[in-house]
Design a protein that fits this description.
With 284 residues, this protein is an alpha/beta fold. It has a single domain, classed as Alpha-Beta Barrel (TIM Barrel), CATH 3.20.20. Helix content is 50%, strand content 16%. The protein binds glyceraldehyde-3-phosphate (G3H) and zinc ion (ZN). Zinc ion binds next to loops. Pfam families: F_bP_aldolase. This is Fructose-1,6-bisphosphate aldolase, class II. One of its GO terms (molecular function) is fructose-bisphosphate aldolase activity. One of its GO terms (biological process) is fructose 1,6-bisphosphate metabolic process.
Length: 284
């Protein structure tokens, strides 16, 4: 069934595993992620960025597509459709009214008081609709960052506590050194801060930039209260590789099913691997 993230993440946190958020990019991503979740008997979060929403034909199109595929595949595991990095109240409201079951309001780039104000407003609307809310503090590195290079700012623990108490959010993404896209070398995550923030907020924590984080760090993050891990780039890389292989092997191929079919299989395999690594397999 389509559900919010609230119960999914609280259960994950209580039982020492994390639920994966896998981002949608097109039809094949949607198919692959839903198939993987059902096969693994894993709860799953479908992440939709504003850009992916535009690319795929809008939030309503995505909700209808997901509903139809869930019916077609007899999906019985819990599925959340989640707005990823929502940039404004308006964008979150649009997703909620389109039928999303969860939203992220990412006001982490502005002043703290503005983050609290817009996040509170989103929570008020979302909770009327039974929709869960994720908020962010600090700066995730990489693409999301306007000032590239050394733009990674760690979330402040006291601000995390205050944001949670003043807004009523359901989960929190404290940026602690993670990066969107591939890491340059080994990631250096702030586990001490993560543990402190988890203790102060008692919230399921969210780890953005899940691509390229070694298993030992994934396990550490989960043990320090991380209950949701976002992955996109790794699926993009594995599917692009599959397409390249097919096209490189045969210059005569033109039917998209011939190269997007293997791309879909590659995504499915990548997602299954992550679900096992995060410990969410057989938890639905
Ligand atoms: O919000 C999306 C994620 O944080 C994805 O990060 O593309 O590095 O896996 P990633
Ligand atoms: Zn992210």
């Amino acid at each position: 069934p389509l559900v919010s993230m609230k119960e999914m993440l609280n259960t994950a946190k209580d039982n020492g595993y994390a639920v994966g958020q896998f981002n949608l990019n097109n039809l094949e991503f949607t198919q692959a992620i839903l198939q993987a979740a059902q096969e693994e008997k894993s709860p799953v979060i479908l992440g939709v960025s504003e850009g992916a929403g535009r690319y795929m034909g809008g939030f309503k199109t995505i909700v209808k597509l997901v509903e139809a595929l869930m019916e077609e595949y007899n999906v019985t595991v819990p599925v959340a459709i989640h707005l990823d990095h929502g940039s404004s109240f308006e964008s979150c409201a649009k997703a909620i009214h389109a039928g999303f079951t969860s939203v992220m309001i990412d006001a982490s780039h502005g002043p703290f008081e503005e983050n609290v104000a817009v996040t509170s407003k989103v929570v008020e609307l979302a909770h009327i609709h039974g929709v869960s809310v994720e908020a962010e503090l600090g700066t995730v590195g990489g693409q999301e960052d306007d000032v590239i290079a050394e733009g990674v700012i760690y979330a402040d623990a006291q601000e995390c506590k205050e944001l949670v108490e003043r807004t009523g959010i359901d989960c929190l993404a404290p940026a602690l050194g993670s990066v969107h896209g591939p890491y340059k070398g080994e990631p250096n995550l702030g586990f001490k801060e993560m543990e402190e923030i988890s203790g102060l907020t008692n919230m399921p924590l969210v780890l953005h930039g899940g691509t390229g984080i070694p298993t030992k760090d994934i396990q550490k993050a989960i043990s320090f209260g991380t209950a949701k891990i976002n992955v996109n780039t790794e699926n993009q890389i594995s599917s692009a590789k599959a397409v390249r292989e097919v096209l490189a092997a045969d210059a005569e191929v033109y039917d998209p099913r011939k190269y997007l079919g293997p791309a879909r299989e590659a995504i499915k395999e990548t997602v299954i691997g992550k679900m096992r690594e995060f410990g969410s397999s057989n938890k639905a």
